[in-house]
Specification:
single chain; 348 residues; Ammonium transporter fold; two-stranded parallel sheet; 2 strands; 66% helix; 2% strand; ammonium channel activity; membrane
Length: 348
């Protein structure tokens, strides 16, 4: 069967990229400024910059390698991931700055981190439509979703008085549902059948697993970066809770993968999709998780739902829809809310 190539994007992609970037340059030139009272050698900078690096690696390398699971879309997907990430981050900085606009949008490391957290929501969504969209679609999707996510964050903070940490950590739920909406909108008759570019093999799966490992390693920083740094015990508790939830979900996913396999073998796809479920689920409940047992129960339950969903519910959703099993587990946090007055995790 001859490959199905998309028509030339030269007349659409190049003008769109140049217009967007020239517009961003104009906005940043006239309406933004770098915060001048930041000391590069101060304690605040030395604390925030390593966390910014961790989030940066998560967004660029983690999601970049994770998106290489398609055989004929691997190299393109990693490049498109970088392109979408940098455009979405620039747009998110502008929209986040409008909330506190006082003549100029002030840039600092915290604003960069918040913008990249918003970008992560976009990268979650486009994983549902990889192989069925071109770069023009992905860029337009990123602009639309960042705008919607920041508006949703503003509503949560101003109308419902939700804390900044909780409103931004909704990125998993927002990204998952936005991805499902995209899949529904882009659905065409016959699209449920597998196409040539949707196939995967062991090589592409290995690169995608590398992205999962990047995400697994840096997920504690991703969950704790917005926790109040003035209270080191809260940040330490967030890191411990995330790591414990990730560890439990990895072990549970491995056990259930072998149990559900007809040949009793460990399924790498199950591991790839489900070992992050604990970290994703505990992220949304970070403000009320104070005990190690709470985080471990959340990780255990999330891994069960994610693995079983990936194994048995896959036939009920669009083939290759990888976001639903991992992020559905996050909704379990509304069923399990620990006592908010419990003592914090203590150091051994």
């Amino acid at each position: 069967m001859a490959p199905r190539y998309a028509p030339s994007l030269r007349s659409r992609l190049v003008p769109l990229l140049l217009l967007l970037q020239l517009g961003f340059i104009a906005i940043y030139a006239f309406w933004t400024e770098i915060q001048s009272n930041v000391n590069p050698h101060g304690s605040n900078f030395s604390k925030i910059y390593p966390e910014f690096q961790d989030v940066h690696v998560t967004v660029i390398l983690g999601f970049g390698f994770l998106s290489t699971f398609l055989v004929r879309y691997g190299f393109s997907a990693s490049a498109f991931n970088l392109l979408v990430a940098v455009i979405a981050t620039q747009w998110a900085i502008i929209l986040n700055g409008i909330e506190s606009f006082r003549g100029k949008i002030r840039l600092d490391l915290k604003s960069l981190v918040e913008a990249q957290m918003c970008t992560a929501s976009v990268l979650i969504s486009i994983g549902a439509v990889l192989g069925k969209t071109n770069p023009v679609h992905l860029i337009l999707i990123s602009l639309l979703e960042v705008s919607g996510f920041i508006f949703n964050k503003w509503v949560l903070q101003t109308v419902l008085n939700v804390q900044l940490l909780n409103s931004i950590m909704m990125l998993h739920i927002f990204g998952a549902f936005f991805g499902l909406m995209l899949a529904w909108i882009l659905y065409r008759k016959g699209s449920e059948q597998g196409f040539e570019k949707e196939k995967y093999d062991h090589r592409s799966g290995s690169f995608s697993m590398l992205g999962t490992l990047f995400l697994w390693v840096f997920w504690p920083s991703f969950n704790s970066v917005l926790v109040d740094s003035g209270n080191p015990w809260r940040k330490f508790g967030a890191v411990c809770s995330t790591y414990l939830a990730l560890a439990v979900s990895a072990v549970t996913a491995a056990a259930l993968s072998v149990l559900s396999s007809p040949k009793g073998k460990l399924n790498l796809i199950h591991m790839q999709q489900c070992i992050l479920a604990g970290g994703v689920a505990v992220g949304i409940s970070m403000s009320v998780v104070h005990q190690p047992g709470d985080a471990m129960v959340i990780g255990f339950t999330a891994a069960i739902v994610s693995t079983v969903g990936h194994r048995y519910l896959k036939v009920l959703i669009t083939n290759r829809m990888t976001i639903l099993p991992m992020y559905t587990s996050e909704f379990l946090t509304v069923l399990y809310i620990p006592d908010s007055n419990a003592t914090c995790i203590s150091m051994p």
